[in-house]
Amino acid sequence: MSSPSPLLIDFQNLTVARGDRRVLRGFTLQVSHGEHIALLGPNGSGKSTLVKLITCELYPETGFRGTRFQLFGQDNWALEDVRRRIGIVALDLLQNLSHEVMARQVTAREMVLSGFFNSLGLWPHHRPTPVHERRARELLRFLEISHLASRPLSAMSSGEQRRAMIGRALVHDPEALILDEPTTSLDPGAVREFRGVLRKLARAGKSLILVTHHIADLIPEIERVILMKNGAIVADGPKDRILTSTALSRLFGARLRVVRRRGNYDIATA
Length: 270
Known about the structure:
Number of helices: 9
CATH architecture: 3-Layer(aba) Sandwich
Number of domains: 1
Strand content: 25-35%
Distance between the termini: 52 Å
Low-confidence stretches: none
Oligomer: single chain
């Protein structure tokens, strides 16, 4: 009998501080390879801190009993390995697009290639190889933005810019993709198109970790939902059990009504 594959994420009883404030306390989370999950919670619930914990921008405090901080079934790993195996499209990266990247007229091709150099766009000292260029063309084609390869991001819609950022996150063919508030500032049409991209990624075998406070972002392939509030998980399970009007009203501190249509969810004021 074969042994079970190690978990993608295995956190047990972790405490994480930002500055002089402990944001996560006794935090426990397990995510399997190939699993698609959504993390829902209001602003300040600890979602972004958890993302930075997964990507090793933050580390848990030491000295607590019964802790476990494992990625890919390992206690120790190289940061380069994390960046290769877990791609990220984060809100702070998306916000940076409106500054130096736009001023430098970075193209979609350059944005995708910059994932190989852990930068936003290419700089003169970067030397993409033919292998890099081939991978970029594959991703632009997969994301259906080949026609934008030479177009500056400043001349694209927000939705097109997000696709280029996803391409950047996929250059190393990661096992998982973290999307932190990916539909912020998108109009309804762009949100619908972006959901189509997420479904395509899910069908391609990538684990998706969607971090949001909009349940309309949840694609049908996401079956597990985790609710976070005040740095703790308050509910975790199948979305049809977790996404109730009562649970969401309690989570966001407002009277909300969950609406489900053809497998998609949304909320409306009750």
